[in-house]
Design brief:
Elements lengths: L43 E6 L4 H12 L4 E8 L3 H11 L3 E4 L5 H7 L8 E4 H9 L6 E4 L7 H9 L3 E4 L3 H4 L2 H10 L4 E3 L2 H9 L8 E8 L17 H4 L9 H9 L1 H14 L6 E5 L5 E7 L4 E5 L5 H9 L16 H4 L14 H11 L3 H17 L7 H13 L9 H17 E2 L5 E2 L3
Parallel strand pairs: 1-2, 1-5, 2-3, 3-4, 5-6, 6-7, 8-9
Antiparallel strand pairs: 8-10, 10-11, 12-13
GO biological process, one term: isopentenyl diphosphate biosynthetic process, methylerythritol 4-phosphate pathway involved in terpenoid biosynthetic process
GO molecular function, one term: manganese ion binding
Pathway: Isoprenoid biosynthesis; isopentenyl diphosphate biosynthesis via DXP pathway; isopentenyl diphosphate from 1-deoxy-D-xylulose 5-phosphate: step 1/6
Length: about 450
Amino acid sequence: MFQRKNRRAISLRRTCCSMQQAPPPAWPGRAVAEPGRRSWDGPKPISIVGSTGSIGTQTLDIVAENPDKFRVVALAAGSNVTLLADQVKRFKPKLVAVRNESLVDELKEALADCEDKPEIIPGEQGVIEVARHPDAVTVVTGIVGCAGLKPTVAAIEAGKDIALANKETLIAGGPFVLPLAHKHKVKILPADSEHSAIFQCIQGLSEGALRRIILTASGGAFRDWPVDKLKEVKVADALKHPNWNMGKKITVDSATLFNKGLEVIEAHYLFGAEYDDIDIVIHPQSIIHSMVETQDSSVLAQLGWPDMRIPILYTLSWPDRIYCSEVTWPRLDLCKLGSLTFKSPDNVKYPSVDLAYAAGRAGGTMTGVLSAANEKAVELFIAEKIGYLDIFKVVELTCDAHQNELVTSPSLEEIVHYDLWAREYAASLQPSSGLSPVPA
């Protein structure tokens, strides 16, 4: 079966893709700001793809608090028309997109009394137009899943810097997206807490100084549960994250540790570290967001309260640092905190870690298949169609079935095709018959 047997092992079936040349990383072990990159007057113009989701709403909180630093030129959302209309009235973008085309008339009605009505473009094409709006300097990509890939590609082709909060852009699309970003001289700035921490730690490092990346994980809802109790997990149990307030999918991913496995793959693509040089450590307090070890064995860490606004803000302000009021941005007090603790992840409790390393080493379309299968499995779990432990089985079986079709250097079309294939295959697995595929 598709498993990483130990930390130093290559995936079980050592396909030719594991020997392929990796795409150029976004930040090859160091980050240096280029002088003279500023190309706008006044507040920095940004577009937000996924404005009504968690990342989008927190980005708009930052804009609202810093109107002299940022302004919104375009917004795209999926189906939350009520919230989108409120955002339009407050932030006055020039262009708005709603992915669900059937809701366009409802949005227009909600904006009927709006003095400065924006242009509205429905469907996927509208989301793409928001991503490549000519006035935007940076695009915040907050759409979950492979739906965020095409808008991100459009933004890159238009020369926009990417505030990256969509994991699939690199996990599924890394082999295609990274060369494209280099071609268009686009900066990919990580907006999630762990990769932002790494990005901050490598600022100013000399070439070749990075030795190891250490990703921290809270351990999720079941970090203190014995393994034999996991068969009793209910959906409500998995949605109780001890530290972060997040959406259902990412909260379940935190419980399974699939989020950390996916972040290992993302760190490989972002920073060029080999998989043997990326470690995971359980850190229950979620104060250290990640660390890097340099060649002289020094370890650099980024600390802060668990607050997604901090990494989002840094993607928008980089390379600058913006003052934040301690009224709305509490400052870290280590003396009051008391202690920080760490432990190794339990690979029996978290088989997702082995699966992610195996998929990463396989490369090509395998990482996207892993991500898509996990997304579908979590969806089925939340809908109470499969059990908690079935999530791992669904992902492993889907990856195993993909091995003979793996594409090492996929096109965008192939990435999207295998994303859809993985979801369909994962959905076809029947818990009642030991998770075997439904006959065609």
